Amino acid sequence: MEYTGSQYIGEFVDGRMEGKAEYILPTETKYVGEMKDGMFHGQGTLYFPSGSRFDALWEKGLVVKVSLNSPTWTRLEKSLPAAMTAAMASTTPPQG
């Protein structure tokens, strides 16, 4: 999954984002964690510009388990637009 204006810092395998990585969306929301086959996969955290974070276990770009040890949705991310940003970041197919 790549968004126009995003930045990827990490490894590639067969031309796809894979391994430990940092992915910064145009909204300045940042994902730090594991990638596989170009998608969030494994343990990873979304960091929002407001300072909030969303820790989760990801599988093929989708959240499968939210960490109970993290301060999830600690600030403004309780809003619908923020929840939609997290959902879009985990479900939008690659472009291009």
* Mean pLDDT reading: 77
As a percent range, the share of strand residues is: over 45%
Distance between the termini: 10 Å
> What is the spatial order of strands in the main beta sheet?
1-2-3-4-5-6
Summarize the main sheet: 6 strands, antiparallel
**Helical proportion?**
10-25%
Structural class: mainly beta
**What's the number of helices?**
1
Written overview of the protein:
This protein has one helix at 80-91, and strands at residues 7-13, 16-24, 30-36, 39-47, 53-59, 62-66. The chain is globular. The relative contact order is 0.18. The chain is 12% helix and 46% strand. Strand 5 and strand 6 form a beta hairpin. It is mainly beta and 96 residues long. The chain has 1 helix and 6 strands; from the N terminus they run E-E-E-E-E-E-H. Residues 73-82 and 90-96 have low confidence and may be disordered. Strands 1-2-3-4-5-6 form a 6-stranded antiparallel sheet, with helices on one face. InterPro entries: MORN, Morn5. Keywords: Cell projection, Cilium, Flagellum, Repeat. This is MORN repeat-containing protein 5. Its main location: other. One of its GO terms (cellular component) is motile cilium.
